[in-house]
Backbone:
């Protein structure tokens, strides 16, 4: 039976939905199964900034079933009341819809509990089991459990083993379903990802594993498939006959902020390219799936990665570029160089910018380069996919001095959300001047709605049991395989030019050697 639907909670305007034709069809699927969600790492940054506000919005929108329970499980000492107060404070600071309404907050707060825990101590997992069992007894719809791993990644295997020891694994739960949500990064390289997967699969089969890549929860990212497969005009030209190159950018203006400890062991290739940016590549390059089924889609995405030519160590210098930001000025204020950031080694060789060229060896994409780049402290925050088409075969228009630019279709992911098409037009007048113009679609004005934050969608989907927007192990493993030679080369060879780009710029000049056509940020 299809889920019932309710009107989307994120109403950017004040007119009722029915009065505005732009908003017709805006719906959000209600979640049918109540469950208890256990947030491991509930005193951490991710919980307060992203997960708690997402739960709150689901509650506010009437999407969360009434009997849903929230259990925080973390090291910081709280009792239930103390944790509820903490949640209220954090919501006041981070909720996307302003401070929580008192009456509505009470109806959520009464379902929140907390366990102060040492992840190495089995007794705390037994305490969790007792709490879940007691809640299940009280509720007519009890039994369903969602374990959300939002701790630092080194703790993931420990939690998974402890869940099994405490008989909190799916097979011991006879009353309902048990699923696990695993935050990124899933491993720090191929070997560690495989080791983590071995731990995971001993307890949870793939159908119960929800690996997060929050980019997949962003509305414009979900729209990539709709653009391609709900329209007829794009697909006929979406191939090597018409596409010259594809460039995918995930640029940030921020530096590493307070996350130097994590980031210095990761770098841009692991932190962004291996997951977020490669998922964008998969959505742009995949074949049409046979249905909207999660595995039909994920199989097509995997097939893209399988078809990417495996780089060899000797290719790395030709297909990858790295950078690290130096000292400079951001928004008129002095900005530290990366090596001076907190918890970063003063001689760090970690890249804060990475650009990679991949080639997909299949019928559709043979010889079309895919350029990927991501970096911190760049000129603008901007994530986008630009598909550049081939030039016209014969020059018929334009004065001799006019450049005839190729068509570019830009899928804008953030901060602007929309689609833009560049094409050539005749400049009014008696001469035959030609110049580029743009056809723009913007989600905000097109639907008169603010896109819901990614985590809201993803938590809801995990509760619904829809894995479409979560990464499957075969694709994660293959993505690690593809970046491994680059990682290994960069680990083995220090880059003596670091720091090699200024904050607020376009990244290292060497990126232009990889590709001279980067779109300016
Ligand atoms: C995270 C990375 O996965 O994505 C961060 O660990 C990065 O380093 C962030 O800043 C970017 O996400 P968004 O949604 O702001 O583009």
Residues:
């Amino acid at each position: 039976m299809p889920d019932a639907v309710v009107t989307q909670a994120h109403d950017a305007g004040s007119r009722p939905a029915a009065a505005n034709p732009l908003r017709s069809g805006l719906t959000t699927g209600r979640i049918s199964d109540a469950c208890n969600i256990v947030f491991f790492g509930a005193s951490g940054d991710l919980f307060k900034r992203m997960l708690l506000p997402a739960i709150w919005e689901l509650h506010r929108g009437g999407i969360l079933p009434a009997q849903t329970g929230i259990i925080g499980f973390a090291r910081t000492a709280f009792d239930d009341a103390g944790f509820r107060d903490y949640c209220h404070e954090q919501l006041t600071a981070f909720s996307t819809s302003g401070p929580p309404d008192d009456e509505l907050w009470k109806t959520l707060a009464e379902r929140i509990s907390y366990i102060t825990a040492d992840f190495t101590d089995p007794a705390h997992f037994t305490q969790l089991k007792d709490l879940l069992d007691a809640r299940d007894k009280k509720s007519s719809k009890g039994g369903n459990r969602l374990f959300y791993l939002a701790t630092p990644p080194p703790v993931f295997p420990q939690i998974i083993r402890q869940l099994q020891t405490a008989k909190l694994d799916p097979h011991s739960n006879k009353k309902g379903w048990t699923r696990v949500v695993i935050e990124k990064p899933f491993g720090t390289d191929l070997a560690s990802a495989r080791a983590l997967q071995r731990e995971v699969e001993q307890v949870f089969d793939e159908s119960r594993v929800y690996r997060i890549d929050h980019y997949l929860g962003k509305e414009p990212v979900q729209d990539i498939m709709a653009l391609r497969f709900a329209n007829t005009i794009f697909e006929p030209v979406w191939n090597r006959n018409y596409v010259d190159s594809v460039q995918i950018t995930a640029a940030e203006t921020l530096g590493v902020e307070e996350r130097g400890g994590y980031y210095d062991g990761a770098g841009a290739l692991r932190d962004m390219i291996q997951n977020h940016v490669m998922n964008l590549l998969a959505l742009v390059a995949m074949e049409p799936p046979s249905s909207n089924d999660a595995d039909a889609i994920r199989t097509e995405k995997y097939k893209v990665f399988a078809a990417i030519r495996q780089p060899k160590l000797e290719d790395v210098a030709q297909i990858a570029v790295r950078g690290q930001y130096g000292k400079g000025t951001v928004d008129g204020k002095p900005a530290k160089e990366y090596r001076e950031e907190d918890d970063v080694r003063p001689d760090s060789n970690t890249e804060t910018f990475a650009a990679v060229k991949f080639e997909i060896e299949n019928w559709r994409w043979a010889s079309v380069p895919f350029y990927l780049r991501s970096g911190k402290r760049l000129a603008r925050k901007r994530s986008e996919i630009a598909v550049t088409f081939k030039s016209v075969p014969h020059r018929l228009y334009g004065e001799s001095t006019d450049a005839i630019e190729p068509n570019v279709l830009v899928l804008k992911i953030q901060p602007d959300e929309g689609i833009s098409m560049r094409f050539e037009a005749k400049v009014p007048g008696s001469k035959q001047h030609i110049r580029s113009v743009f056809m723009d679609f913007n989600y905000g004005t097109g639907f008169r709605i603010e896109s819901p934050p990614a985590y809201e969608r993803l938590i809801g989907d995990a509760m619904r049991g829809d894995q479409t927007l979560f990464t499957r192990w075969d694709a994660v493993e293959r993505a690690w395989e593809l970046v491994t030679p680059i990682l290994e080369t960069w680990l083995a060879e220090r880059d003596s030019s670091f720091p090699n780009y200024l904050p607020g710029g376009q990244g290292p000049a060497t990126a232009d050697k990889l590709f001279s056509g980067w779109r300016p940020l």
The chain has a mean pLDDT of 92.
